[in-house]
């Protein structure tokens, strides 16, 4: 299965959206799926405010990844202003068993 890097930038009212759906998003990331989250977290601006997200995900295919991402509570709430998905080769930090 290939790895993918997902980099998203939040809409201007992102902090309010994050606050409202953050727990649902975290639960979704941890839920069993064909896609496995290897690493995830927000990226920060100069004031340490969350302004977007970075995820490294192992997925069966790009199509499977797109279907999985469509169910993200952040995406359903309109948080991402844009999303960039790229193939990624994780060299250091791969969890055991993957």
UniProtKB/TrEMBL annotation:
It comes from Algimonas arctica. InterPro entries: Dimeric_a/b-barrel (IPR011008), Sec-metab_biosynth-assoc (IPR051807), YCII (IPR005545). The lineage of its organism: Bacteria, Pseudomonadati, Pseudomonadota, Alphaproteobacteria, Maricaulales. This is YCII-related domain-containing protein. It comes from the Bacteria. Residues 4-89 form the YCII-related domain. Belongs to the YciI family. Coiled coil: none annotated.
